[in-house]
Structure formats: structure tokens, C-alpha cells
Design brief:
alpha/beta, 9 helices, 7-stranded parallel β-sheet, binds nicotinamide-adenine-dinucleotide, single chain, Rossmann fold, about 15% strand
């Protein structure tokens, strides 16, 4: 009989696989890249900010993880193709793709600026779609793959002051289900994690006293998430063995936010 370590490694181990983490220089992306790397994967950190990319690669390497950094702009298909081709040249193929780039901005509804709306939609929704398109093109001929998109608790529920962000994240969950259905028979799975509240650069400026109070009231666990608490869900959904029959899921990691009522 296999030891429990061998059994768990057979289910969740990612050795011999390459993951591209777009937005990998951000708070959640770095944490997910580190977790996938510790589970055995080689990691391509991709981000539009070179300094963050380099810093993330250095941190992964310090953990003993094989990693490279590549600059990318998710709103540009050519830039994504260049990322994909460089990632394949380095890793042999791309087994896993994590779409973790995202931006946000908060205003009252009547102050929503159409240009800001377009920018948020371009990065969060169109960027996720383009990235899936570009990587699936190659996954179709390289034995399949697994994609993890990042939704949000407001993929499902409204939150105040983040209208474009919410619409983009609802779109990401919808896109995820459509891709899952379209490519299931081709060996490509596509799932989403919908995180609750994990303070990071993009949302910290929205967190005034009133909002924090509302978040804590709405979160049954009465605390923020720690980015490390997303890692196990990501490994489950991305893993060929543990996640083999899971596709099209929107997996909420939110301290109970979406199940709370009063
Ligand atoms: N932090 C949270 O509480 C939370 C909750 C729900 C969902 N999310 C989502 O998780 C993802 C990661 O967010 P985070 O909290 O780590 O934020 P973050 O700002 O730390 O990271 C986002 C990363 O995306 C990169 N990025 C932005 N535009 C890009 C572009 N055009 N091309 C390539 N990269 C680009 C940024 O440089 C940054 O490194 C986002 O999609 C976000 O919407 C975050």
C-alpha cells in the first residue's frame, strides 16, 4: 500500500507540469504561484509590471521553485501569444493557466466613467477571454490542460461602488462555464475561484471604515482571508488527478460571505 504522502502526492502533486500565472506579480497571483510551485510545478510568472514580475520570480526561486518571469499585457492578443510561445519554449508545454490579472475602481453608480468601465472590462473580462483563447489554441494539440480563472464574491452578489468590476467578474464566471462546456471533450478543464476579501493593492484603497464594517458583518468568519487560504482550492481545481471530473465550477473561498443572509 502507498504511504499517505505518496497517496496525496498522486492526487495533488504537480511535478513535471508547467503553470503560467498571469497577474503573478500581484498579491494573490504570487501566493498561487508559490503554492503551485511547492506542489511541484514549474512557474511562469507573467505580469504587466516588470519589477513585480522580477520580485515574484526571486521569491519563488528562494523557495526552491523553478521559475521565470515574462512581461505581458492581457488586453493584447499578440502579447499573450508571445507569452505562450516563450512559456512553451521554456517549459515544454503549458499544463495549467491561472488568469489572475485584475483591476478595480470604486465610485457611485452615477459617477461611473465610461473610460474606466472599458479599462476594467478590458483587463478583467476581455483579458481572461483572450488568454483562454490563446492558451487553449495550444492545449488542444498538447494533450489538454487546466485553466483557473478568478471571479469574486460579486460575480454573484452585488457590492456597493464597484459596478464595472462586478459586471466583469460575473462575466468571468459565465465565460468559465462556457469554456468548460466547449472544451470538456478535448481534455481541457476550466474552473473559477471566487475569493471573498483578501486585502491587496487593488482593493485596499476602497476599504474605508464603513466598508470594512460591512464586510465583517457580511462575512460569517468575521475576518479577511489570507491569500494562502486560496492555494488548496487552486491545486484541487488545477490538478489532473484530484480535479479530473471538476469543470465549469465557481468555487467560493469567502469565509461564508455568499451563504450569509443576516
Ligand atoms: N484581493 C481580493 O480580495 C480579491 C477578491 C476577489 C477577487 N480578486 C481578484 O484576484 C485577482 C488578483 O488580485 P490581487 O488582489 O492579487 O490584486 P493585485 O493588484 O495585487 O494583482 C493584480 C495583478 O494583475 C496585474 N495586471 C493588471 N493589469 C494587467 C494587464 N493588463 N496585463 C497583465 N497583468 C496585469 C497587476 O500588475 C497585478 O500584479 C484579480 O483578478 C482580482 O480581481 C481579488
Amino acid at each position: 500500500m502507498a504511504s499517505s504522502a505518496e497517496y496525496l502526492n498522486g492526487l495533488f502533486g504537480l511535478a513535471g507540469q508547467t503553470a503560467v500565472v498571469i497577474g503573478g506579480g500581484g498579491a494573490l497571483g504570487l501566493c498561487l504561484g508559490t503554492g503551485l510551485g511547492k506542489a511541484g510545478a514549474k512557474i511562469v510568472v507573467a505580469d504587466c509590471r516588470k519589477a513585480q514580475c522580477d520580485e515574484a520570480v526571486a521569491r519563488l526561486k528562494a523557495e526552491g521553485i523553478e521559475a521565470i518571469g515574462i512581461e505581458v499585457n492581457v488586453t493584447d492578443k499578440q502579447s499573450l501569444r508571445a507569452l505562450r510561445d516563450e512559456a512553451i519554449a521554456w517549459g515544454g508545454k503549458v499544463d495549467m493557466l491561472v488568469n489572475c490579472a485584475g483591476i478595480n475602481a470604486g465610485t457611485s453608480f452615477l459617477d461611473v466613467d465610461p473610460e474606466v468601465w472599458d479599462k476594467i472590462m478590458a483587463v478583467n473580462l476581455k483579458g481572461t477571454m483572450l488568454s483562454c483563447q490563446v492558451f487553449i489554441e495550444k492545449m488542444l494539440t498538447s494533450g489538454g490542460g487546466s485553466i483557473l480563472n478568478i471571479g469574486s464574491v460579486n460575480s454573484d452578489k452585488p457590492l456597493s461602488r464597484v459596478f464595472a468590476y462586478a459586471a466583469s467578474k460575473a462575466g468571468v464566471v459565465n465565460l468559465t462555464a462556457n469554456i468548460a462546456q466547449e472544451f470538456a471533450e478535448k481534455g481541457i478543464r476550466c474552473n473559477a475561484i471566487c475569493p471573498g476579501f483578501f486585502p491587496a493593492e487593488q482593493n485596499r484603497r476602497l476599504l474605508d471604515e464603513k466598508r470594512v464594517e460591512n464586510i465583517m458583518r457580511g462575512t460569517p468568519m468575521r475576518r479577511y482571508g489570507d491569500p494562502n487560504e486560496l492555494v488548496a482550492a487552486a491545486i484541487l481545481l488545477l490538478s489532473k488527478n484530484a480535479g479530473s471530473y471538476i469543470t465549469g465550477a465557481a468555487f467560493y473561498v469567502d469565509g461564508g460571505f455568499t451563504c450569509s443572509w443576516f
